[in-house]
Amino acid sequence: QGLGQFKTAIKYQERHLEIAKEVGDKAGEGRSYGNLGNAYHGLGEFKRAIEYHQRHLKIATEVEDKAGEGISYGDLGKAYHCLGKFKTAIEYQQRHLEIAKEVGDKNGEGRSYGNLGNAYQGLGLFKTAIEYQERHLEIAKDVGDKAGEGQSYGNLGNAYQGLELFKTAIKRHQLSLEIAKKKRETRLERDEVMAISAMPIMV
User: pTM of the full predicted structure?
Assistant: First the structure.
């Protein structure tokens, strides 16, 4: 079902892209490229996603769409993360963070911190990852982003697990699980149950 949704989204975005080009809507053209990149990301076609996000970034820069530019950097960072290129991901997420601060996008700032934390975790730098996830958590609470708060707790659980601080890890995963249940986010709930059950039993 999920893959079908992404394939349907690609059809609509390709049509939207054609129309944007026809009427000379450069900003709309850029957004279509970004949405196409996200759809291909959802299909697991990360290299193709990067191509579209690069096009979005180019247009956003040309039309001086700072918010779009920041989003592009963030999307590129996520795609490179999925390819295991964590250092490149960090470079792009840092640019997203800078722009999010510049334009006052608190949600974007929080997501950048979270994505940076994930990238540092990918490099095995768990303490640095925790610092970034804590910043994401703080902002998520400030802006009332419950989904972001749940993700932060889950990511913190993963980082503490990497440090073999299992009791602390379990507490963070349980907090994430509570939010997932309240929001009825079945995938997050499933992930947290799996993460908790995978922990060593401490006696």
Answer: 0.89
